[in-house]
Amino acid sequence: MSPTVFREKGYRFFFFSREEPRMHVHVISGDGEAKFWLEPELQLARNYRYSRPQLKEIESLIEVHYDELTNAWKQHFGS
After folding, report:
1. Closest CA to 49 of 60, 61, 58
2. What is the pTM of this model?
3. Is residue 49's pLDDT more than 70?
4. Residues 20, 24, 29, 31: is their CA dihedral positive or negative?
5. Residue 20 lies in domain
């Protein structure tokens, strides 16, 4: 199961259930996919095919939706 938290600018931001416990979010679009750590600080964990400008845009979207993402994580994973 991989619940979508939100979609914006052609990106889908979601979690994979039953993955590692460290808070993070996956991002996917037709251009690529990436994984960002949300804690202890926002940091790129993995990138596949996104350009530097796309990663900056994605990071900005995560910053705008940070509270939404962390609250969704806690609700989904119960921590």
Report:
1. 58
2. 0.94
3. yes
4. negative
5. 4-77
Beta strands in 1-79 (DSSP E): 4-8, 11-14, 24-29, 32-37, 43-48
Q: Please report, rounded to a whole number, the percentage of residues in the chain having pLDDT higher than 70.
A: 97
Domain total of the chain: 1
Q: Alpha-carbon distance 49 to 31, whole Å?
A: 7
Crossing angle of helices 52-64 and 66-77, rounded to 10°: 70
Q: Comparing C-alpha atoms, which of 47, 44, 5, 39 is closest to residue 22?
A: 39
pLDDT at 72 over 80: yes
SS3 at position 28: strand
